[in-house]
């Protein structure tokens, strides 16, 4: 049975709903009903994640539930089986699971941070609310020897080189080879020249079990601040320097044309968290985050399941992120010199 087609039917859900809307990424399908959102993982293996078995998909949905309850306990509800009943698929209930879905409260789309920003309504007050939510989150986040190793240059280098190896074939086609060389050269140089700074970050307890995907589409500015959809599929992308998380959102603010608010955000967070040296990592981690976003949009552009217009837009967006990564590489190289 076609899972996606079955879950687009309102009768598949435990609560009444008039319509079902599908949103998909390269790794998930999200089915939006009147009051809830149901996420189902695609059976894909991208190297850095593997959802190819039912057991793996169930496990990582449970991880997603647990980890996201740290910041959104009222939004992340439960993991439900998808079962076959009377010839049709149903979410929840008894029966042999054919797959699983993570049930979440539906958040108002017009309150998503990127949409607030696109309407020109984003303010310092919004960022102050986000900072007030994030500072205690990082203070309480897990740390220690097992997590600290992810702040070491060797693992950070591995993360960067993995990105470069997976995107080198795009250089010359999606973005210039010279830009690829500039970004890679900056990352390698920074990691080599600032080993003492990375060691100090570890010693000061700045390496934490973070969010890992802190950009505007994952923040809702409704009656409260809801920061959702953290990385659950690979701790290597979630464990790391708090600066890497904060600089992700700073980069996204830059990308959307809010550079003044981006600077305000990192400076106020650094002050509120007692971490002035976070600013020394700014261009390095913003470059990394912009490059990762470029890579993800490049994957979407190559996903034949996506409509052509989605793929075309993803290609344009990927190029814009790669260009932004180049700006950070240039600025960071001048600062390091």
- Which percent range describes the beta-strand content? 5-15%
Topology-level CATH name of the largest domain: Aminoglycoside 3'-phosphotransferase, Chain: A, domain 2
Report, as a whole number of angstroms, the end-to-end distance: 59 Å
| Overall average residue pLDDT | 95
Helix share, percent:
40-55%
Spell the H/E element sequence: HEEEHEEEHHHHHHEEEEHHHH
Counting helices, strands and paired strands, the structural category is: alpha+beta
Sketch the major β-sheet: 6 strands, antiparallel
Task: Tally the beta strands.
Answer: 10
Label the CATH architecture of the largest domain. Alpha-Beta Complex
Domain count? 2
Query: What is the highest CATH level, the class of the largest domain?
Result: Alpha Beta
The main sheet orders its strands as: 1-2-3-6-4-5
Radius of gyration: 20 Å
Number of helical stretches of at least 4 residues: 12
**Shape field:** globular
Ranges where pLDDT stays below 50 over 5 or more residues in a row are none
Question: Your description of this structure?
Answer:
By secondary structure, the chain is α+β, with helices and mostly antiparallel strands. The protein folds into two domains: 3-106, no CATH class; 111-336, Aminoglycoside 3'-phosphotransferase, Chain: A, domain 2. The protein is 49% helix and 15% strand. It has helices at residues 3-7, 54-68, 113-118, 124-140, 145-148, 153-167, 177-193, 195-203, 242-255, 259-272, 282-301, 308-336, and strands at residues 21-24, 28-32, 36-41, 76-85, 88-91, 97-105, 207-209, 219-221, 225-227, 239-241. Helix 7 (177-193) crosses helix 12 (308-336) and helix 9 (242-255) packs antiparallel against helix 10 (259-272). The longest helix is centred in the C-terminal third of the chain and has 29 residues, at 308-336. The chain is globular and about 65 Å long.
């Amino acid at each position: 049975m076609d899972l996606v087609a079955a879950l687009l039917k309102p009768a598949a859900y435990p609560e009444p709903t008039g319509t079902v809307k599908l949103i998909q990424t390269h790794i998930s399908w999200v089915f939006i009903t009147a009051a809830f959102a149901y996420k189902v993982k695609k059976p894909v293996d991208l190297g850095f994640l593997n959802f190819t078995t039912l057991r793996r998909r169930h496990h990582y949905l449970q991880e997603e539930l647990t980890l996201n309850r740290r910041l959104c306990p009222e939004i992340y509800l439960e993991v439900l089986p998808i079962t076959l009943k009377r010839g049709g698929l149903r979410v929840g209930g008894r029966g042999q699971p054919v797959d699983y879905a993570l049930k979440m409260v539906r958040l108002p789309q017009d309150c998503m941070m990127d949409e607030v920003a696109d309407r020109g309504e984003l303010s310092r007050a919004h960022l102050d609310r986000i900072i007030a939510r994030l500072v205690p989150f990082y203070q309480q986040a897990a740390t220690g020897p097992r997590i600290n190793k992810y702040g070491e240059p060797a693992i950070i280098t591995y993360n960067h080189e993995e990105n470069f190896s997976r995107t080198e074939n795009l250089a010359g086609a999606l973005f210039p080879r010279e830009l690829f060389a500039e970004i890679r050269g900056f990352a390698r140089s920074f990691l080599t020249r600032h080993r003492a700074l990375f060691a100090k970050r570890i010693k000061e307890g700045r390496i934490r079990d973070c969010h890992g995907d802190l950009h505007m589409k994952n923040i809702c500015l409704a009656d409260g601040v809801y920061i959702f959809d953290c990385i659950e599929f690979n701790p290597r992308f979630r464990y790391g320097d708090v600066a890497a998380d904060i600089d992700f959102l700073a980069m996204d603010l830059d990308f959307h044309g809010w550079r003044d608010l981006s600077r305000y955000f990192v400076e106020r967070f650094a002050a509120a968290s007692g971490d002035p040296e976070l600013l020394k990592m700014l261009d390095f981690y913003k470059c990394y985050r912009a490059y990762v976003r470029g890579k993800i949009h490049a994957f979407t552009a190559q996903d034949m399941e996506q409509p052509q217009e989605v793929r075309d837009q993803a290609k344009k967006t990927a190029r814009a992120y790669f260009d932004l990564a180049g700006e950070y590489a240039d600025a960071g190289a001048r600062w390091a010199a």
